[in-house]
Structures are given as C-alpha cells and as structure tokens.
Amino acid sequence: MVQQVVTIAGLKGGTGKTSTAVNLAAFWSASRSTLLIDADPNGSASKWHQRSEGGLGRCVPIQQAPMAMAQSWEVVVMDTAGGSRDEQRTYAEGSAFVLAPCPPAASSIEQVIDLGELLQQAQARYAVVLTMVDQRRAQDASKARELLERLGIPVLSTQISLLSAWPKAEAAGVSVKDARADSGRPDPGASRAWKQVAALAAEIEERLT
Ligand SMILES: Nc1ncnc2c1ncn2[C@@H]1O[C@H](COP(=O)(O)OP(=O)(O)OP(=O)(O)O)[C@@H](O)[C@H]1O
Ligand SMILES: [Mg+2]
Description:
By secondary structure, the protein is α/β, with parallel strands linked by helices. It is about 45% helix and about 15% strand. The protein has a single domain (about 5-209), classed as P-loop containing nucleotide triphosphate hydrolases (Rossmann fold). The chain contains 8 helices and 6 strands; from the N terminus they run βαβαβαβαβαβααα. α5 links the parallel β5 and β6 (about 125-130). α1 (about 15-30) crosses α2 and α1 crosses α8.
C-alpha cells in the first residue's frame, strides 16, 4: 500500500486549512484507509474530531504521528498551523503533495505567493485552492487566479464557495455533507460544499499519480 502525505499548508491564519483538511480526510475515509494528523498546537482538527465521537475516522496530534504512521494508511492528510516558513518547508519535504487554501483577499494572496516561492524552492508538488469564494464576488476569485497563474503558481480548477455549511459542520463535528441549519434541516449548501470537496479530492488524486 502506498502511503501518500497530503499537507494542508499556509503562512497565514484563517485561510480554511483545518476545514479543508478535515473534510478531505472525511471524504477519503469512505473509500480508503485515511489518517488525519493535526500538526496545529491549537488542536482545531482534533477538537472537530472529538465532537464527531468517532464518526470522521482517525485523527492524531503530531506527537502521536510516528506511532500512528507505523500502521499502513493509503492517505495521510496533515493540517498545519499558519505561519513559520521553516515549519512549512519541513512539512513540504515529507509530503507527496502540498495544498494551500487561499481566500481571494489581498493579504491571503500575498502570503500564498510567498508560500508558492518557498514550495517551489523546496521542489514540492503543490497547488493553491481558492476557497471561501463569495459567489456574489466571483470576479475576485477570477482575478486572484489570473494573478497567481501569471506568477507560475498552480491553481486547482475546483473552487470552494463561501457557504454556511462550513462553520455549521465544524460546530457540529461533522463533515460538510452532514451540516445542518439552525432549524435542524440539512443545510441548503451542504451538498454543494461536499461536491466541491469531492472535486478537490479528485484533482489532488490526479496530481498524486
Ligand atoms: N468555504 C467556507 N465557507 C464559509 N466559511 C468557511 C469556509 N471555509 C472555512 N470557513 C470558516 O472560516 C474559519 C476559518 O477556517 P479554518 O479554521 O478552516 O481556517 P484555518 O486556516 O485552519 O485557521 P487557523 O490558521 O486558525 O488554523 C472557520 O470559522 C471556518 O468555519
Ligand atoms: Mg486551522
């Protein structure tokens, strides 16, 4: 079994790393053995998993990763803390693929350009995914994509929309597929968000093989 580490990276906080990591791991868990490593000392992925009471598969803090990785997993997803270039470089070196979520906002784009340079130097296989894309401001995402591509930074064609299903899923300890609105009914954006997770997973798989 081939073990491939997919690291969710970023030099900045609040770009959607944990949301992406938890949901990608949940998606892959359905079809292959998947381990989620929480490398963020804040432990947000671990807390999300604790709320799920086992419903989202296996998640371990980074300290327990060496022991957990002694088992064979088909996919290992790693959530990282925003910041530290050295840390991001080290993680990239141990990864088959690095994914950098980036909302289409100036400060996030600047940071992802910086990260792109770092990952290129480290010769990592990586790509940016535009996330928290507000459909009413679709132009922002197109402009961000154009700029990044002009700089030679690979951007996946899948985009993750800004949808309430994401914070709802986090609060409930479920994947976005099972997010519910305050009324208790399925969140109206849940299936759209999950389709985007599936499309993102497929694009990453293409780049892994
Ligand atoms: N596509 C989305 N639509 C709406 N809200 C989102 C989306 N993705 C993430 N969020 C929300 O944005 C916030 C930040 O997301 P998240 O915690 O995943 O980012 P992060 O990069 O892991 O942050 P940190 O650097 O603090 O670890 C959370 O409240 C999350 O629910
Ligand atoms: Mg996080």
